[in-house]
Amino acid sequence: MKDFARTLIALDLSPMDRKIMDMLQLVKPILDIRKAYFLHIMPDFTLPKDVDVEFQKLFAPEYPTDEKVKDKIALDVAEALGNWPGLETSVEVREGKPYQKLLHWTEVKEIDLLLLGHKQESEGSGIAAKRVARNSKCNVLFVPDQFEGPIQKILVPIDFSDNSARALKTALAFQKQLDNVEIHCLYIIDLPPTDYYMRPTVNSGFFKVLQESATKAYEEFVERHQFDTANLKANFVENVYNNITTHISTFAENHQIDMIIMGAKGHSAIESFVFGSVTERLVNRNKINPIMIVR
Asked: How far from chain centre, in Å, is Cα 65?
């Protein structure tokens, strides 16, 4: 896929880095990544507090810290990836506020995909996943520290927008390259606000009408974008929680989903705001599944 040729990989010298590079190995052929920037951002060019003893042994004491870090990352990248034909790599170490510098670097290098870790317990790195999800202008792939693979079930929340179509196209690229991958499309059906005051005596017949309408919209959606429905599983869920993020997370857990791919925004001004905020909340809440945000 030509949309992901230039990738930025954010590293922090923790065990998380290996998880991220494992994910890069997985997605590189699928997304046709050609250029990979490995970036570490230091608040200042002093020795990182949590660097292990082996790191210290590699270099002379008078060796500048940023050069030590750069060479350490280069060694780790070479060990993890080896000689990889068709992939050009570059290691960068920069000083500054991690979150601001990261977003700045995605623009400077015209990055297509940002790949970064998503830890269950924050260690104060300064790169907040929710803020990245909100403000990054490129595609983003969050890699949880508990991820082991393989990827066999992918969830794509949809709203029939073009952004949903791009997310589904990306999921189909995974399915094409990997073995036995299931793709679940999830559309969450909203009922009129007054309906929530009528429960539990809700009119089930009314929901059936909405479900039929959603099914028709789904059929038109896949036909318009020429998706092969034989490779997709359509799921329609009533928004009983009045919370789309909860439904996505619950579906992922109940169906043992391995990865979530979703568009950043919907297809209108209001839906862009709502779907965008759903993306942020999902990233903030779900730290188990890799989450890919497609723009």
From this structure: 31
What CATH number does the domain located at 2-144 have?
Answer: 3.40.50.620
Q: Summarize pLDDT for 159-172 with one digit per residue, the tens.
A: 999 999 999 999 99
What residue ranges do the domains of the chain occupy? Answer: 2-144, 153-294
Q: What angle do CA 282, 286, 287 make, to 5 degrees?
A: 135
Using CA atoms, how far apart are residues 233 and 240, in angstroms rounded to an integer? 21
Tokens 């990997």 sit at which residue? 178
- Please confirm whether the linkage preceding 192 is cis (ω < 30° from 0): no
Cβ–Cβ < 8 Å for 257, 289: yes
The answer to whether the CB of 189 falls within 8 A of the CB of 236 is yes
- Nearest CA-CA partner of 129 in 248, 35, 16, 30: 16
Beta strands in the chain (DSSP E): 6-10, 35-42, 88-95, 113-118, 139-144, 153-157, 182-189, 232-238, 259-263, 291-294
Give the count of beta carbons closer than 10 Å to the beta carbon of residue 28. Answer: 18
- pLDDT, tens digit, for every residue of 74-126? 999 999 888 788 899 999 999 888 888 999 999 999 999 999 999 877 655 44
Please identify, in words, the CATH class of the domain defined by 153-294.
alpha beta
Using DSSP, state whether 56 is helix, strand or coil.
helix
Whether residue 200 has a cis bond before it, omega within 30° of 0: yes
